[in-house]
UniProtKB/TrEMBL annotation:
Protein name: Putative phospholipid-binding protein MlaC
Gene transcribed to yield this protein: mlaC_1
Length: 218
């Protein structure tokens, strides 16, 4: 397994209101995502590690093109999500047990709103960040299910942060299904927050959809 090191002159993610814990975890994951500047995976055999390095390259290119409009940034961000993340699987997972009782119409709307939530929450809320170094340490088998790509964020004013990217093979190629930051799963945290939102709305999936509509409007 190869190590892929890169310097970063990137941007952090500011939080948004609403489902706060999910936003914070998404923010942590996307901060790490954008830290990959000028990465080159040196091992042709380590496709999973190269996949994560490529993600960093594309993300930093998006963030450094200051002349692009908000709509253009959202479109680019949507393309990155499509190319690197399995949002359908993530959507089912974060809705948890409520996915089984949701109607097909509710599932379809949740998929759409969840995607819009991710794009709106983070495509426009990137502030200056610099001095980080992102290292892809390599990939390992994930119990025969896919791959885990291990990486580190070296910070100027703090200890390094470990980030594991969980990848699965899909018909269209490798896709990310979870990001684990210092042992904390982004997907599990989101599921807990969405479940709490549904509970606060009387156990109704429509209550979460209502909140997400408000989050993504405008």
């Amino acid at each position: 397994m190869s190590e892929v090191s890169m310097s970063a002159s990137s941007r952090s993610v500011a939080g948004v209101g609403g489902i706060a814990r999910a936003a914070r975890m998404l923010g942590a994951a996307l901060f790490i995502l954008v830290a990959g500047h000028a990465a080159e995976a040196r091992s042709a055999d380590d496709q999973a590690a190269e996949f994560v390095a490529d993600l960093g390259r594309e993300a930093i290119t998006l963030l450094t093109e200051q002349e692009r409009s908000t709509d253009e940034r959202r479109a680019d961000f949507d393309r990155i999500l499509t190319s690197y993340f399995d949002l359908d699987s993530i959507s089912r997972f974060v809705l948890g047990r409520h996915w089984r009782v949701a109607t097909e119409a509710q599932r379809d709307e949740f998929r759409t709103l969840f995607r819009q939530f991710v794009i709106k929450a983070y495509a426009e809320r990137l502030s200056a960040y610099s001095g980080e170094e992102f290292t892809v340490k390599g990939a390992r088998d994930d119990n025969g299910k896919g791959y885990i790509v291990e990486s580190r964020i070296e910070r100027q004013n703090g200890p390094p942060v470990r980030v594991d990217w969980r990848l699965r093979e899909r018909d269209e190629g490798l896709r990310i299904v979870d990001v684990v930051v210092e042992g904390v799963s982004m997907a599990i945290t989101q599921r807990a927050d969405f479940n709490a939102a549904i509970a606060a709305e009387g156990g109704k999936v429509d209550g979460l959809l209502k909140r997400l509509r408000a989050q993504t409007s405008g």
